[in-house]
Amino acid sequence: MKKLRQRFAIDEKYTHVVEGSAEKKIPETCDELHAGIVVLGILGRIGISAAFLGNTAEDH
After folding, report:
1. Side-chain-side CA neighbours of residue 28 (13 Å)
2. pLDDT for position 17
């Protein structure tokens, strides 16, 4: 995340890395931050990695 923030000149206060179930953690973090919008990056996986790791952005 730090490399991406620096590359695109995004202030640290606008990025959050939270470990856990996306289904629970995204709404919890939004509530804690009083967020009006969420930007979720995706990494398109295919094949065996998609089967085991999945794609968070496609989960719901």
Report:
1. 9
2. 85
Give the Å distances, CA to CA, from 17 to 26, 28, 29, 47.
10, 13, 10, 26
48-53 long-range contacts, CB within 8 A, separation 24+: none
pLDDT, position 7: 92
| Mean pLDDT, contiguous 10-residue spans, the chain (60 residues) | 89 87 88 86 63 55
Tell me the C-alpha distance between 17 and 1, whole Å.
8
Tokens of 39: 């930007």
Q: Running DSSP on this structure, what letter comes out for residue 36?
A: S
Q: Which amino acid is at 25?
A: K
